[in-house]
Amino acid sequence: MSDKQRDDKPTGAVNEGRRRFLAGSAAVGAASMAGAAGVAGVGALTRSQPAQAASHGGAADIHVPPGELDEYYGFWSGGHSGEVRVYGVPSMREIMRIPVFNHCSASGWGMTNESKRIMGDSHRFTNGDAHHPHVSYTDGSHDGRYLFINDKANTRVARIRLDVFKTDAMVTVPNVQAIHGLRLQKAPRTGYVFANGEYMIPQPNDGRDINDPSKYYTLWNAIDADTMEVKWQVMVDGNLDNMDADYNGKYCAATCYNSEGAVDLAGKMRADRDWVVVFNIENIEAAVASGDFMTIGDSEVPVVDGRKSSDLNVTRYVPVPKNPHGLNTSTDGKYFIAAGKLSPTVSMIEIARLDDLFAGNLADERDVIAAEPELGLGPLHTTYDGRGNAYTTLFIDSQVVKWNMEDAVRHYNGEDVNYIRQKIDVHYQPGHNHATLAESKDADGKYLFSLNKFSKDRYLPVGPLHPENDQMIDISGDEMVLLHDTPTFAEPHDAVIIRRDQIQTKQIWERDDPYFADTVAMAREDGITLETDNEIIRDGNKVRVYMTTVAPNFGITEIPVKQGDEVTVTITNLDRVEDLTHGFCVVDHGVSMEISPQQTASITFTADKPGVFWYYCNWFCHALHMEMVGRLLVEPA
User: Fold this and answer.
1) Is 582 annotated as a binding residue?
2) Which of 244, 283, 533, 604 is deepest in the core (most CB within 10 A)?
């Protein structure tokens, strides 16, 4: 159905008003672009009908037949759900949900002893706000070992093992509040995970200086990717937003949207320019090594002073307009590109000039700006096709704009050149966008995803809370073509897409896997051989149950306990058949977990009321799955 046909339908006052707003904002964006010398105006707008894809070559055929595999893994953040979602690309079939900062009754994440150890004290939080997933690197290419993601809600960073698609480490970052922007060291390998603390707080935040915002600061954080320990932090001025790292392992850069240091909305928009903070990693490491750092409160993490007033040569503040948001490194390694958000421009920082900036060889910080092209209203994020083109989301215009980076530089230097290649309408208000392999030097320019904050009339109505709308766009040819809409829930926020051959997964757990090593050690102390023993051990009011499972049997079918006992059930799945997962669920006790082939998993609960309570396998495993049960027999206290 065309937009004209849709508009002719009696869709109601709300939708009609929405369409008039979109039409008006698009016109404003076009007029804004027409005012820039050498930039295409309305003629740059092109249709984006699915019918156009039917006759389009290149990557346009997105059908993946039954039984065949997708070309890419797509990792979407789960937003307010706190999870990571795994899609096949280009089919957009949802393959898996990986619980991270949330609790999951299907897998037992947040309930099992193994997950509680990984989450640490923060397992008491049942919510998360997962924003930026990124896959680890070797020499600028994704190596498929880990995926890292941040939790803005509770100031955490987590690591997911991509051989088993399980979260295996998590850290709560001290001295900051709300981890937002997160990126990885790209070269020579991912040794660091870099994370922005967004909100400024008193340092230390222990009740003093609550009413004195002049003493509020935030920190930029480096986490050891191997140990998941916070290695050092850098104190900065302003709120840190998004960030990225270069392809040499030397520099990182982060946008700041509150250079004013304000605590109210109006105050955060006073300045015509905010800044991009550039971090010199080698100089920060040298400062830590030489003892040029402080510590804050009870934390022992070294904190280096990177504020504008500091005489340490660890940061530079590059003025850019206005309340910038996204910052993305071009895949050719040349530029940090910061999106203006409240300015119609993006700022291209030339990474090759940063050595001179830190050496004091430039007259002004803005001498590192290679270009500042005007793109449209509300630029937020930029991705790349590996052919010299950048793609930036325009939130207010509800568009993605394709533009050529080197032509933008030529235009900035005075040449009469058109750097905008095309604009395509998206539905509606895009935030992040991501193209295939576009977080690495291997960007292949096949598909782009626009992650749109609103869906409005794109799907069947489901009440006041609408899904969001991710749209797949073919960028393999000269013209962008809309291919597919995908509804998503609870603000997925960001994504990363890599080739399927870049990940090697296990189909069956190895018995010496560190994921459940602590549980194995506990069994060893009890004299238990997990692969053979089915025993119950009583230690005062603590009961430890060790059992095996082989479809369709639990190794123990009666667990006698007393009311008030703390019961720990440890199960080892002896099946070796791929995809033969068992579950353990105790009725009326809030107990549920999965145990995949050759995995050991454990869960602890209190038998708080007398009676008979059945436990059963809640992952379908066998023709006699319904009969795979046992009884928890709770004697009155």
Assistant:
1) yes
2) 244
